[in-house]
Amino acid sequence: MHINQRDYSLDILRALGLFLIILAHCNPPDWLFQLRNFDVPLMVIVSAATYSFLYQNKHICAQDFYKKRLHKLIVPAWIFLSLFFVVTDLVCIGLHINFPFSAKDILSSYFFYSGIGYVWILRIFILIALLTPPLLSFKKTFTHTPLYFGLVLSVYTAYEIAVILTHKILPDGGVLKFIDTMIFPVIPYAVLYAYGIKMTELSQKSFLAITAMCFFIFVGMALYFSAHLHAGFLQTQTAKYPPTLYYLSYAVFCTNSVYLLSQTKCIKFLPEKFLTWVSVHSLWIYLWHIGLLYLWTYSLSLDG
Question: For residues 104 and 199, what is the distance between their CA atoms, to the nearest angstrom?
Fold first, then answer.
């Protein structure tokens, strides 16, 4: 399996990931919300595959990469947030209503923690940007594929154990929430990224084996939870914060499946230029959809 200079499959998948993330914010029915619940891992894996291709024959200078990539991520987000807060304040003044955000909301938005909501994904984008140089070096150091994936799986296994033990030891509250939100996600997304930078180099047989394995893990866990919780199907969203095996196995299965589809002739029926444009401008599209969501929510409140 491979990608080449003129293959637009990764652009198509990045556009798909963006649409699925936006869909999640539009209150879809439960079945559709579950179906699309692989969007963020898809974006991580596609980003990894893209940078793996771009730097396959050249050295990556970490300092230059960080300067360029972090600037592209942080500056547009801060510009959008500044415009968003200024416009919101002006609208509130004009309508003689209270400004809906506290100083804490504003500050945490700029740090992509919570704030106005929807901005947490910028933390993931920044994280994978920080991971790119070291993981590309890791890939070039451990060229033996079984050893490479053995090390990756060892790290992931240690992470799952750490999550279980931490949740047993620490009580629910601010400390555990902070660890689940800011610390633990680093490992699973790093593992997804490590998988993504190798994905396009896997043989068809290995790729299908990983896809099948993830499918059976997901189905097996779904049946187990259904039998023990007596509550029907448990959505993978419940295992997203922090990301654990139930969520990740479904996400990798779906990501691999859509990647396989992107390698078939079916992509010739897609609006290639439009999807490539969406892929290139995905960050700005995502940011402006936040403003549209707030505008839509406000319009509904007026109707109510």
Answer: 41
- Going by C-beta distance under 8 Å and a sequence separation of 6 or more, which residues neighbour residue 40? 17, 21, 121, 124, 251
- Please give the Cα distance from 115 to 33 (Å, whole number): 23
| Average pLDDT value for the chain | 92
Q: Which of 302, 216, 283 is nearest to 77 (CA)?
A: 283
User: Does residue 3 have a pLDDT over 70?
Assistant: no
Indicate the residue type of 199. M
Distance CA 34, CA 37 (A): 5
pLDDT tens for each residue of 209-219: 999 999 999 99
Spatial contact of 15 and 278, defined as CB atoms under 8 Å apart: yes
Q: What pLDDT score was predicted for residue 5?
A: 45
165 touches 157 (CB < 8 A): no
Per-residue pLDDT reduced to its tens digit, 105-143:
999 999 998 899 999 999 999 999 999 999 999 999 999
Q: Tell whether pTM > 0.70.
A: yes
Helix (H, G, I), strand (E, B) or coil at 240: strand
CB 276 within 8 A of CB 18: no
45 C-beta neighbours (distance < 10 Å), count: 28
Full 3-state SS string of 196-209: HHHHCCCCHHHHHH
**Six token digits for residue 104:** 């804490």
Cα–Cα distance, 114 to 127 (Å, whole number):
16
